[in-house]
Amino acid sequence: MDDINKILRILQQKIRVHTVELYKNYNTLPIPELHKYQLLMLVHKFVYHNDKLPPTFANYFMLNRNVHSYKEKS
After folding, report:
1. Where are the domains of the chain?
2. What's the whole-model pTM score?
3. Number of other residues whose CB lies within 10 A of the CB of residue 22
4. Rounded Cα distance, 52 and 39, in Å
5. Do residues 35 and 1 touch, judged by C-beta distance below 8 A?
6. Measuring CA to CA, how many Å separate 32 from each of 9, 16, 44, 69, 71?
7. pLDDT tens-place string over residues 4-32
8. Which of 8, 39, 61, 70 could potentially form a cystine with 22 if both were Cys, beta carbons 3.0 to 4.6 Å apart?
9. Would you give the DSSP letter of residue 14?
10. Is it the case that residue 74 has pLDDT exceeding 70?
């Protein structure tokens, strides 16, 4: 991660700048945050737009309602 920050600092020619600004200038997220974002996007697509996922991911997750038969409260 530090290597990526160093590369961004070199590219922007800003040696003393906070990492948040580095990523903001490139309109991106740090790698760990980018990973979380992509994972959340996948889960969102699975729940709300399952038909838009490749067949490989069609059964990647299991919804809780498909596992348990709890009755909803009125």
Report:
1. 2-66
2. 0.64
3. 20
4. 15
5. no
6. 18, 22, 18, 36, 38
7. 888 888 887 877 778 888 888 888 888 88
8. 8
9. -
10. no
